[in-house]
Amino acid sequence: MFRVSERKSVLMMQKPFGFVEAGGPTNASHCPFFAILPSRSDASRIVRHAQDLCRRAGLGGALRSADRLHISLHGLGLHRALPGHLVHAAREAGESVSFPEFDITFDCVGSFRSGRDGRFPFVLRSLDDIDALSLFHRALAAAMTLVGLGRWISLQFTPHITLLYDTRFARPREIEGIRFRVREFALIDSLIGQSRHATMARWPLKG
Fold first, then answer.
1. Taking the CB of residue 16, how many other CB atoms lie within 10 A of it?
2. pLDDT tens digits, 152-190
3. 98/55 Cα distance (integer angstroms)
4. CATH number at residue 181
5. What is the pTM of this model?
């Protein structure tokens, strides 16, 4: 297997992009965010690959289910209850985005050094910049700004799909590319402490 360069290894070990969580309550129950969701067939295929990837890395954590796989885009903070105005504005932003479908490929797997509860996120990443995905991230940010959600824009963007959390750290390595078509994005409510995502809205890519 090809060894990932030192520069790319450092990238893999950096703190992952997550959400802007400034000012969130400690007993928050909701973490809404924009995300890209693979199709059901693509998500199932990723899970099948992930089972082998985790086995090879010697990881024994619980693999995320197919319906929870996603690429995080922009977060909308932590909340005890979902603010209606925030959800309304987020829906407006999502509805206004015009962007064509595009393909993305993840060809690297490994752990981020920043974890939680002593566990490291084991993620799919790309060795190269994903131009179309970065452009889409910016297009959504522009739409958020227009509806007053500029404070929630995540300037740092590290595209990845989290497969599981594990106490063992797995060094990055190149894998055969996992490619899929991005056809939609969504507004998700991560229900904190329940390991569950509720989809509040979906938008097909168009343009």
1. 21
2. 999 989 999 999 999 999 999 999 999 999 999 999 999
3. 40
4. 3.90.1140.10
5. 0.86
